[in-house]
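Hey team,

Sharing the Lamin tail domain-containing protein run so nobody has to redo it. Sequence (153 residues) first:
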Amino acid sequence: MLRFRRAATAFVLAAAGVAAAALPAQQAGAASGSVFLYKIYYNSPGSDTGSQTSLDAEYVQIANTTSSNVSLKGWTLTDASRHVYTFGTYSLGAHRSVVVHTGKGGNTAAHRYQGRAWYVWNNDKDTATLRRSTGATVDTCSYNSARVAYKLC
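Structure output:
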């Protein structure tokens, strides 16, 4: 599965302005796909001042490599300190990704906002967990490094 995930996640991404990305056609049809944590950008650029720009540059990206839309209604994204973001009515498109920002903003298909006034993801180590509305774990991704600003899961 890990090999498939890495091959299927050849998204073209910009660091902080990540948009929902479609998978290349040759990869989109591979296997049945999955929904998983793709990237955690845990150390936003500059000082941690709590500014809206800084909070919005801290995010988790979730990818859907299936050939169907997946309802994430009631799914949760948590860190090791149990900060919880719960998806409302939302469907992640087939072969798409969504960026869940820590800060505040207007939700779109490609970007969701937790609405927090301070950081969630520790700059040195943490664990992200994605769960279904039933509580079943879908994926986890951990990092343990202050030397880089993000982790590809």
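The longest helix spans residues 2-8.

Ping me if you want the raw files.
A.
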